[in-house]
Write a structure and sequence with these properties.
- The protein is 19% helix and 29% strand.
- The protein folds into 3 domains: 2-30 and 318-531 and 570-578, Alpha-Beta Barrel (TIM Barrel), CATH 3.20.20.80; 40-221, Galactose-binding domain-like (Jelly Rolls); 238-314, Sandwich (Immunoglobulin-like).
- By secondary structure, it is of the alpha+beta class.
- Strands 23-24-25-26-27-30-31-32 form an 8-stranded parallel barrel, surrounded by 4 helices.
- The protein has 8 helices and 34 strands.
- Strand 25 (393-397), helix 5 and strand 26 form a beta-alpha-beta unit.
- Helix 1 packs parallel to helix 6 (445-461), helix 3 (353-366) packs parallel to helix 4 and helix 5 (409-426) runs parallel beside helix 6 (445-461).
- The structure holds alpha-D-glucopyranuronic acid.
Length: 634
């Protein structure tokens, strides 16, 4: 009796939280970044990616001396001094570094690719480059790094400009007044080391890839500029726009949103915070974005002194009972999971657009997929824009992964900032339909409170998408029948349930029993298999038996699991683990792994394994069936 009462209370609480969040729909939270810089790559300025020098600093000598005091002259690696020149002038001076004459590397890209010695380096690395600029009066300047893993400190011309924690979201630092006429020096200290309070914690099942892994740019904008514009189709048939102006004259600005192809224009005036909310009925001729028709519109946001261009697809996503509805129509998510790691034998998380296109094309055209789980952290903005363009639905997530310190306020703040940075950067991306707040986290009261806070933040920042989390299940044996129970208390707070399930790979269940597992439908919500998978070394075939790490075993595992999935009436999608073999220091079998997690359907060089064709055939069947796949109950 008691559990039923507890469940009722939690459902009532969840409903109350949903209502609260809906009423509290807001444009920003305290955890929101000061500067969002929507569509930053479209802005004027200077792309600072390319050749940088690097200097390794495992004992952080560039920051503090041997007794823990601040680093002194000759150690301050952020000092833009020309060491060679300085020591010619004062031969008595001692410098034990020289950023100008240090080795060079091309950024973005993790330091694992700079030299073989750095393959497993974890610690502080300094990067430096000079650039020539002529700042203009009345303009403002920002340094933006799309991702630096895990913490970063930025110095411009020897002055500390700003810092950031988190390896997968952008940060934008106001450096107006620090940019010099002529030569400038930018030096960045990136530290890959994570603590138990980090997000993610030190132990994950993927390569850290420390360093600056996405673009760096100097951005030039008007003194009062359009910092953020979020334009979307609402579930009640409106085009809504939320705009935020940044600058001394942010209040009282005349703001216009135009979608020329729809002959749609909205106008308003910014309030004292520089914000304005606009909405109008969506035109009948609006072509809704979908995987089959990934229609993007040019959107122009303008004020008297600034114009911001965006490419936006308009669609709705919602849940109705156990269905996921895209533009009001039930859909089955034919997906696969993917890490941010390019094809090749020595990846460095340098995910260029062409690298991303190669991988997403395998999903869309090779697997006949319409969905990708971008695991386990926010991927690059260019990958999301590509998903918009190609027509792939996206699950986006923050790395709240495994053993998070649920009792740490610092950890919660870090996770909340990551969620906000992720959503502010990407909420114009039609491809994203799901925000996930966690992956395989152990259930506890502290964890539930932590995740409910994250869920509440997501609801406040974005009432147009669905919320999920990758959960674990509990299994029982009843009359010789294996039952998979989804009874994580978090289910009451999610729109879409998701579980990682590995029967037939982890545990002792024989492969031929997998198809018979039963999945009771206890929640009346749609379910996604956010992970299932088995490993295979491409090219390994054992002639005598179907054994683990052979392509035949992986293929049979997929057949069995797909067979099981066809009997689950509330299953509305899947993103098997994983598209491509990926680097993981935890995986060290000397024959089959050697530092790679081999659950990919592709090898690290893109060679398709037998299981690739099993999944492709299954998705092609679902696609050909036309309507959303609904399992037969008989
Ligand atoms: C887990 C986890 C993944 C991991 C996978 C595996 O489900 O979410 O990050 O790589 O299992 O064991 O391969």
């Amino acid at each position: 009796m008691l559990p039923a009462i507890i469940r009722l209370i939690s459902v009532v609480w969840a409903t109350f939280a949903l209502i609260q969040a809906a009423e509290a729909q807001t444009f920003r939270l305290d955890s929101s970044p000061d500067v969002v810089m929507t569509n930053a790559s479209s802005r004027d300025g200077l792309n600072l990616s390319g050749g940088w020098t690097w200097s390794v600093d495992p004992y952080r000598d560039g920051l503090q001396g041997f007794h823990g005091t601040a680093a002194g002259k000759g150690h301050q690696r952020f000092d833009p001094v020309d060491v060679d020149e300085a020591t010619r002038k004062n031969p008595g001076d001692l410098y034990e570094y020289d950023m100008r004459r240090a080795d060079k590397a091309t950024l973005p890209g993790s330091w694992v690719s700079h030299t073989p010695e750095l393959r497993y380096y974890q610690g502080l690395m300094w990067y430096a480059r000079d650039f020539h600029y002529s700042p203009k009066p009345g303009k403002r300047y920002f340094l933006r790094i799309e991702a630096a893993n895990y913490t970063a400190r930025v110095y411009l011309n020897g002055t500390f400009a700003g810092a950031h924690e988190g390896g997968f979201t952008p940060f934008t630092i106001d450096v107006t007044g620090l940019v010099l006429e002529g030569e400038n020096s930018i030096i960045v200290g990136v530290d890959s080391v994570r603590t138990d309070q980090s997000v993610p914690p030190p132990v994950t099942d993927w390569e850290t890839y420390g360093g600056i892994t996405r673009d760096i740019q100097l951005i030039e904008v008007p003194g009062t500029f359009i910092d953020e514009a979020w334009v979307r189709l609402t579930r009640d048939g409106n085009i809504a726009a939320s705009v935020r102006i940044n600058g001394n004259a942010c209040a009282g600005q005349a703001v216009e949103i135009a979608v020329p192809e729809l002959e749609l224009t909205m106008r308003g005036t910014s309030d004292e915070r520089g914000q304005v909310e606009l909405r109008t009925t969506a035109p009948h001729k609006l072509a809704k974005w979908s995987p089959e028709n990934p229609k993007l519109y040019d959107v122009v946001v303008s004020t008297a002194v600034d114009r911001l261009h965006e490419r936006i697809g308009f669609r709705t996503i919602e849940v109705k009972d156990e269905d996921i509805l895209l533009n009001g129509k039930s859909i089955f998510l034919r997906g696969i999971s993917m890490h941010e790691e390019e094809l090749g034998t020595s990846p460095a998380r340098a995910m260029s657009e062409s690298s991303a296109r190669a991988l997403l094309s395998e999903i869309k055209y090779g697997l006949h997929g319409n969905f990708v789980r971008l695991a386990h952290y926010p991927h690059s903005e260019s990958t999301l824009r590509l998903a918009d363009e190609m027509g792939l639905l996206v699950w986006s997530e923050v790395p709240v992964y495994w053993l998070i310190d649920w009792d740490s306020g610092e950890t919660l703040d870090t996770a909340r900032s990551m969620i906000a940075e992720n959503i502010h950067r990407d909420r114009n991306r039609a491809s994203i339909i799901l925000w996930s707040v966690a992956n395989e986290t152990p259930v506890s009261d502290a964890r539930n409170r932590f995740l409910q806070t994250l869920i509440s933040d997501v609801r406040a920042l974005d009432d147009t998408r669905l919320i999920t989390a990758a959960l674990l299940t509990r299994q029982t044996e009843e009359n010789g029948q294996t039952i998979a129970h989804i009874d994580d208390p978090l289910t009451d707070f999610l729109d879409v349930l998701a579980v990682n399930t590995y029967n037939g790979w982890y545990g002792d269940m024989p492969l031929d029993a997998v198809h018979d597992i039963k999945w009771p439908d206890d929640h009346g919500k749609p379910l996604i298999f956010s992970e299932f998978g088995a490993a295979a070394l491409a090219g390994f075939h054992d002639p005598e038996l179907i054994r683990k790490f052979s392509e035949e075993y992986q293929a049979e595992y997929y057949r069995q699991t797909l067979d099981m999935s066809s009997n689950i009436t509330f299953l509305r999608g899947m993103s098997p683990w994983i598209l491509k073999d990926f680097r993981s220091p935890r995986r060290q079998h000397p024959i089959y792994q050697r530092g790679w997690n081999r659950k990919g359907l592709l090898s690290e060089t893109g060679r398709r394994k037998e299981a690739f064709n099993v999944l492709a055939a299954h998705y092609k069947m679902l696609e050909a069936s036309g309507i959303a796949h609904r399992a037969t109950t008989d």
